[in-house]
């Protein structure tokens, strides 16, 4: 059974392993490269995943082991504070198909619902990530645009789909 909770600085080592593994296993899906992430220090990563009022990173656990991650951040500037973004979503290959992605998205949406005045969630997905896009669409996200020439990897250029989910009450 998948369990999801908000990660803290104490989870930094397991987070580091999962993040580095998903960056290596599917480099096209992420803007950050595995090499860039590997160069980051533990203190910086711990600070990044430490929850704040406007940012949390969720972890999905299977058998007590971290197998998936997702970050949720609310905009802080007054004119866009009604929006939040989901990013850095990754599930270890051996844990896919067991509900970790669904559980992570459910937790993020539920948490976002606690943010007063929040009216929309946003995310982007690279065109090659068909399974991820279907996951997001199952959770109410819809594509509102496509950014051509968004990501380059190994000499190839990929588009990104931009998705949003209405978070207004009653939606």
Describe the structure.
- With 171 residues, the protein is α+β, with helices and mostly antiparallel strands.
- The protein has a single domain (2-121), classed as Aminopeptidase.
- Helix content is 29%, strand content 36%.
- It has five helices and seven strands; from the N terminus they run βαααβββαβαββ.
- Strands 1-2-3-4-5-7-6 form a seven-stranded mixed β-sheet.
- A hairpin with a 2-residue loop joins strand 2 and strand 3 (65-74).
- The protein starts with a strand and ends in a 5-residue tail after the last strand.
- Keywords: Acyltransferase, Transferase.
Provide tags for this entry.
5 helices; YpeA/RimI_acetyltransf; 171 residues; alpha+beta; 7-stranded mixed sheet
Distance between the termini: 29 Å
* Beta-strand content bin: 35-45%
| CATH class category name | Alpha Beta
Label the CATH architecture.
3-Layer(aba) Sandwich
Which SSEs are present, and which pair or pack?
Layout: E1 2-6, H1 12-25, H2 34-38, H3 42-49, E2 55-62, E3 65-74, E4 83-91, H4 100-112, E5 120-126, H5 130-138, E6 142-153, E7 156-166
In brief, what are we looking at here?
With 171 residues, the protein is of the alpha+beta class. It has one domain: Aminopeptidase.
